[in-house]
Amino acid sequence: MMKRETPQEMDTHSDLALPSLGRTLTLFGRAFTLRCPNCGKGPVLQHPLKLRVKCGTCAMRMQRGEHDSFLGAIFILFTMVGLANYALLLLTAAVTDETPWDVLEWSMPLVTLLLLFLLYPFAKLGWLAFDLMLRPMTPAELEWHRESDIEFEVDLDA
Ligand SMILES: [Zn+2]
Questions:
Q1: Of 30, 36, 67, 115, which one is least surrounded by beta carbons within 10 A?
Q2: C-alpha of residue 38 to centroid of ligand 1, in Å
Q3: How many angstroms separate the first and last alpha carbons of the chain?
Q4: Alpha carbon separation from 155 to 6, 59, 70, 110 (Å, rounded)
Q5: How far does residue 114's CA lie from ligand 1's centre (Å)?
Q6: Ligand 1: distance of its center to the CA of 7 in Å?
Q7: 154 CA to middle of ligand 1, Å?
Q8: What is the pLDDT of residue 2?
Q9: What's the gap in Å between 5 CA and the centre of ligand 1?
Q10: Do the beta carbons of residue 153 and residue 38 sit within 8 Å?
């Protein structure tokens, strides 16, 4: 039986870049308006909880062809949910004379659960923006993304 050769995952050829403020704002502005951080267009979502494999305009793979890209997104998601909970707690303490701990006890886990789903696509695209901020897309990498329709070149289950 002939062994099928599997191409390796793409390693970006660009060095780490020191991002400018303008470029950073552009990348995150696109991500948090649910557009592709790379080209500013899209579509990028298959449905609210799932990114398309590739951007509909520039054809960059939304996970950049890397199996571990979700780890960064999870970090961003937990940070956003944590900050939102602190904000809710501070707001409640600021507008009430006596903090309603009994209400917060059941409402905060509920808010957390809701925010995990609501903020999920923003976290995924936010991580992609962060990644592009530090490792800008090169023409060679973009060409690599355009050459294939599959999400990852290396099948880890094989
Ligand atoms: Zn794009």
A1: 67
A2: 5
A3: 15
A4: 8, 20, 16, 37
A5: 28
A6: 23
A7: 22
A8: 46
A9: 29
A10: no
Output the CA torsion sign for 85, 91, 97, 103. negative
Q: 149 alpha carbon to ligand 1 midpoint, in Å? A: 14
Query: What is the Cα Rg of the chain in Å?
Result: 19
Q: Give the CA-trace dihedral at 157, 44, 64, 2, to 10 degrees.
A: 40
- Residue 116 CA to ligand 1 center (angstroms) comes to 25
Neighbours of 78 (CB within 10 A): 14
**What share of the chain has pLDDT > 70, as a percent?**
87
How far apart CA 96 and CA 5 sit, in angstroms, is 64
Query: pTM of this prediction?
Result: 0.80
Domain boundaries, the chain: 21-146
Q: What's the pLDDT at 42?
A: 84
Distance 133 CA to ligand 1 centre (A): 15
Note the pLDDT tens digit of each residue in 49-63. 888 999 999 999 988
pLDDT of residue 155: 63
DSSP3 helix / strand / coil % (the chain, rounded to 5)? 50, 5, 45
Residues in the chain: 158
